[in-house]
Amino acid sequence: MDDTPHQQRPGRHDVVELRVHGVSGARPEQVLGRAHVRQVAGDDSGGFHRAVESEDAEPDGVTLEAYRWGDLPSGTVARTLSLVFLLPFMLSNVAVWMRPTDRRSGAGVTVLCRLLALNLTVVYVVSIGGVALDLLAWRCLGAARCRAPFDTMAGLDGREVGPRLAVLALLPIAAVAFLRLLGTRRPRPAGNPLWAVEPMVGRLRAVHVAAALAVLNLMLLVARTAGGATASTTLLLTLSAAVLPFCAVLLAVPGLLDRAATTRMVTRTASTVGAVAVALSVATLVAVALDERPWPSSEGLPGYDEVVNWVLLTQMTLLVALSGLVLWHQGRGGRRNALPRGLGAAVVAAIAVGLGSAFAANLVYQAGNLLDGYRGDGGPPLPYQWTLLAFFVHVIAGVVLCGGLTLLSRRRRWRAAAAITARDFPAVGPEGAERLRQVTRAVARARFVEWLGLLAITYAALSVIGLATSLLRLTDLAPDQLAWRVLGLPAGAVGMGLALGSYLVAAVLVALILGGVFAYRTAWFRRHVGILWDLGTFWPRAAHPFAPPSYADRAVPELADRITHLTERHDGVLLCGHSHGSVLLALAVLRLPPRVRQRVVLLTYGSPLDRLYARLFPAYLNETVLRAVGDRVEWRWLNLWRDTDPVGGWIFAPHRPGDPPPDPADPAGRVDRRLRDPQGLLPSPGERRPPPVRGHHPGESDPDFRAAMSELARRLRH
């Protein structure tokens, strides 16, 4: 579809106003404020829409067009549900983009994030291997204590231990194949891809598959050698164990995966490692299945607890090292009572590790309860008991910290908000006192984001809880035994904590599944929950190859191509981006050729470019990049923001009453415009309700927005 025939009427529609919505996934009718729209380019996932002929232009002759990209991150409901289980992988991938700007610290953060991502894949395989090998093959089909029909599963109950393990080892292999299949799917790109890291995904995928198969081989071979080793099993065990450090080296050498000069060599090496791991897995399955020697007698799969212990201990060690590195960097140059730049890597990585470990532990825990496979031997493997307990303690500590910080900051936030509303509404009568209090409360809530730095620092420091539990796992004591010996607590108290931790993980998983269903079917749910998924899938896969693919690889080039197309058929294009849409437009502006940039102006509103993105992703969206955007459009850029907005804010200068004026010689000082919100405290004549508090809402119909649009249109024409 194209709008060429529509442009054959000279004198009208000389400027196109291209609106890009935020993460709320608004319909084109809402974005354009028109009842009837038609699609002029794109497809069902991401398309450009205009109003019908009779209502397509504003009174000043500006043609309205909207880009709807809200379906790019989601796709079908089935795909959304499948991606829910990839949430820890997605978060670990986002963490690598939050590295600090310092070259040394940034390189260290990148390496640690990639190693943590690799560890999450290993934890995923170890947990599924625990269900397939330890619970089903060893316990249920061996001791025959599970509920029917699992005690006679597929006729394997009469088989020897080796064939049972070899057959059921296909379950974790299938799980790895499923992840690899999901990781190869990606949205259709438009034009040249935005990011230069996508070719790296194949190398990361080969490394992760190799590590996953290697740790599965180790579980089988450690159990086999517990009853006596042979030359073949010793050789296989040695080679499989060597695969893991080799994979870690490929990720740990700074810049090895990213250097263009070594791309072919690294790609060939990663593929070779993957092929070696596959060959070792085939040999291991054959060796285990055909080995007729007696197996040792034990309650669980021999050596399984030790494998899980060291995997989780490695995970916690990496997380503590990452937290220490970013906290050290923050101590050198961070700012207090503000969202620190570069600290998000540790916080997001801690959440990813916590969720991934909790999901893995709960899978084993609940599977054992379902099959009744842990009856009489003290419950599930000890490492998972400690993991569930650590997750429960971590969540409780996080809730207490959030509540404490909310109360601690309330007085300061309220004092700052009262000063703002007092300047905006200096003379308020008794009839407006309650409304003034409501507006002050809205401003105070919006300012809570400025206190997230303290919460982030404290939450990153809580990673020591996981490290402590990892070390306690090595004592071979159950949590209730240690609590009785050290603290004198009854066993029931710890057991209650384990049960609550398991139920809490199950509740989180159910909430994620329901969120995946409703986030793209219900506008309210989409606006409040889908934002997390849209922001997470914006970044490409630079750490975890099984994370969801980046939709920006299509959205940004598609926007740049459309803007170029419109400048060839119109006098100019007025770009309007709300919230996350302003990020997409800023990146699209950086891709425009010079001849196109001369005929483009930019309006952002409710923009998180500086308030969130420049602080969370300082190495990629910083002041230098934002100034480059201004230079590209020759500073024909206005940014509207409100004090009541908890997401968006100013980019270069706040322009609050009483603030020092910016440097008049700096064009960046003229970009931001603060909007008083609300416009008044009392209802206007003829109205029954006072003006609403807009907050983060778009407000394209507001007079201030239309005035800014008219000003930019005049600057574009003249």
Give descriptors for this structure.
718 residues, AB_hydrolase_fold, alpha/beta, globular, 7% strand, eight-stranded mixed β-sheet
Account of the 3D structure:
The protein is of the alpha/beta class. 58% of the residues lie in helices and 7% in strands. The chain contains 25 helices and eight strands. The chain has an eight-stranded mixed beta sheet with strand order 2-3-4-1-5-6-7-8, with helices on both faces. Helix 4 (103-143) packs across helix 7, helix 6 (170-184) packs antiparallel against helix 7 and helix 7 packs antiparallel against helix 8 (231-252). It is globular, with a radius of gyration of 29 Å.
Care to give the gist of this entry?
Residues 652-718 are annotated as: Disordered. InterPro entries: AB_hydrolase_fold. The protein is of the alpha/beta class and 718 residues long.
List the topology elements.
Blueprint: E1 15-20, H1 28-32, E2 37-42, E3 47-51, E4 62-68, H2 77-84, H3 87-96, H4 103-143, H5 161-168, H6 170-184, H7 200-225, H8 231-252, H9 263-290, H10 304-333, H11 344-371, H12 382-424, H13 433-446, H14 452-461, H15 463-473, H16 479-487, H17 491-518, H18 523-528, H19 530-536, H20 552-567, E5 572-578, H21 580-591, H22 594-597, E6 600-605, H23 609-616, H24 623-632, E7 637-642, E8 672-675, H25 703-717
Helix pairs in contact: 2-17, 3-4, 3-11, 4-5, 4-6, 4-7, 4-10, 4-11, 5-9, 6-7, 7-8, 7-9, 8-9, 10-11, 10-15, 11-12, 11-14, 11-17, 12-13, 12-14, 12-15, 12-17, 16-17, 20-21, 21-24
